[in-house]
C-alpha cells in the first residue's frame, strides 16, 4: 500500500534527515515509527503526503509514484492527525470535522451528516459536542475530534504524528484503546509516529525502530522485544522488554489451567468429597448456563450443612479477561483484585484460569517462539517450565 524505495532527505542546509529508507506498509496495517528525537520519523511521515519532498528514492502509494500525483489530490486520500490537533478555533466541532468533506465538494447536508457519524464513532455525542468550540473541550476530546476530522473523507491512508502525546497518561491509554477498536472496524493503512516505545508496541502491527536517519529494525512488536536486531535496538526497547512483552502476548487457550469445577446447585458435601479426592483446595463455580459465578473453598464445603448447596458458600469472582486479551490485562486484574488467579472466558463461556505460574510460562514460550521464529503453540511446555 505504501512503499518506500531507497528514500533519502537532505534538507537545504545540508542536514541529512533520513537515508536509504526501504520498507513497505501493507493495506490495513498499522505501522509505528519509533525512535529518539531528531531521528527522522516526522520527515519520513511528511514525505508521504508531500509536505516534504524526498531528495532521493521514491515513494509509492497503491503502486503509484506519489511524485507524479498532484499534492492536493494526494492529500485527499491521506488523513493527517498531529499532536496539537490543529483545529480551527473559531469553527464549531461539527464544522471542524466536516472540513475535508466540504473541501472535496460534498454538499453541506451530506458533509454534516458524515461529521456527526464520525463524532459518534470517536465517542463524542454530536448533539452535545458538535456545537461547541475547540476551547470548550478537554485535550483528549480535542484529540478525538482530530481523529474524526482525519477520517471524515474516508481516506485509505492515515498519518498520525504523536497523536496522543499531548494528553495525560490515563487519557492516553484510553485514547489508544479507542483508536485500536476504531481501527479494527475502519482498517486504514496507518503510519503512526511516536517516541514512546510502549505506545509503539501497543499500537503497531509492525514497528520501525529508528536509529539516526535509518531504520534499525522493522518487525512485529513481539519480535522486536524478543530478538532485537542490534545492540542499539536492545538498548532502545529497554531492559524491561520482558514486561513490555506482556502487552503484546495474547492469552491462548493452551496457557490455561483447568481447576476443578462445581455447579451452583450441586450438594456442597458431595463437592467437598470430590475436591478432597483431587487434593484441591478450591473450585471454580459456574451457574446452570456454564457461566462464571465465582469460586468456593474446599474447607468451607466440608463444614457445610447437610443439604447445603455450593451456591450457599460460593464467593463471587469478578476478575476475568477474554481469551486473546494481552497477558498484561490478566496480570493487572490479578494485582488489582489481589487474586492468585484470573478466569479466562470465551464470550460468556468459561475456558480456564490463568495463574502467575502459567503467566510466566506463557511469557517464556512466547520469547522462545520468537527466538526460533515459530508459533507459540509449537513450543513444548517442558522446554520452558523450569526456566
Ligand atoms: N526544515 C529543516 N531544515 C533542516 N533540518 C531539518 C528540518 N526539519 C528537520 N530537520 C532535521 O532533520 C532531522 C530529523 O528531523 P525529524 O523532525 O524528522 O525527526 P523526528 O524523529 O521526527 O524528531 P522528533 O521526535 O523530535 O519530532 C533532525 O536532525 C532535524 O533537526
From TrEMBL:
Its EC number is 7.6.2.9. Pfam families: ABC_tran (PF00005). The keyword Nucleotide-binding applies. SMART domains: AAA (SM00382). PROSITE patterns: ABC_TRANSPORTER_1 (PS00211), ABC_TRANSPORTER_2 (PS50893). The keyword DNA damage does not apply. GO terms for molecular function: ABC-type quaternary ammonium compound transporting activity; ATP binding; ATP hydrolysis activity. PANTHER family: OSMOPROTECTANT IMPORT ATP-BINDING PROTEIN OSMV. Belongs to the ABC transporter superfamily. This is ABC-type quaternary amine transporter. It comes from Streptomyces halstedii. The lineage of its organism: Bacteria, Bacillati, Actinomycetota, Actinomycetes, Kitasatosporales.
